[in-house]
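Inverse folding, one chain.
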């Protein structure tokens, strides 16, 4: 397992993501969080590991809303799950860094973001902006490639290890998979 950024031409600056070598770290953060949210991009649908199923189960077990980006919303609906919102990735990123935004439900800002399924470079840029401008937001990348701009990120994982980690998060939250 490597914590080398997958996108090599960029540097993350002096503050880099903590590597989550155990999925129990993500479970503890979700349980401790007051208002977590999941942002899921199109790669949760277009991947053989089918992380879409894990996103749905994590959302249900952790009682957290899902924002579906790109064409992901349609796939969620086809799988019998209605996301809390469907919007562009940059739109939700801008809202998350806005301290006056009251959230999708009007109950206040989110304190923990779980993000996966976006193209690597896009997630990199979104997490970079959130790291700089959303100081009260803990960001957790659940993608299989290390994201140095997140607060926490999986190290670079094989597809099999990634699936095992996502499954462990679902089980740790009391969900079924």
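Residues assigned per position:
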């Amino acid at each position: 397992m490597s914590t080398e950024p997958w996108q090599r031409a960029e540097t993350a600056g002096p503050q880099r993501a903590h590597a989550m070598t155990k999925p129990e770290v993500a479970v503890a953060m979700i349980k401790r969080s007051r208002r977590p949210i999941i942002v899921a991009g199109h790669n949760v649908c277009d991947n053989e590991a089918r992380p879409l199923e894990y996103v749905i189960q994590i959302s249900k077990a952790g009682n957290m809303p899902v924002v579906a980006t790109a064409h992901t919303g349609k796939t969620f609906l086809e799988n019998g799950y209605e996301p809390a919102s469907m919007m562009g990735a940059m739109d939700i990123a801008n809202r998350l860094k806005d301290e006056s935004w009251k959230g999708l439900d009007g109950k206040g800002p989110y304190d923990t973001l779980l993000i996966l399924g976006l193209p690597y470079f896009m997630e990199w840029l979104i997490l970079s902006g959130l790291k700089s401008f959303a100081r009260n937001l803990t960001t957790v990348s659940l993608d299989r490639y290390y994201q140095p701009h997140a607060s926490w990120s999986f190290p670079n994982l094989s597809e099999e290890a990634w699936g095992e980690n996502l499954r462990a998060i679902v089980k740790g939250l009391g969900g079924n998979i």
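The first strand starts at residue 18 and ends at 19. Residues 34 and 157 are 29 Å apart (CA to CA).
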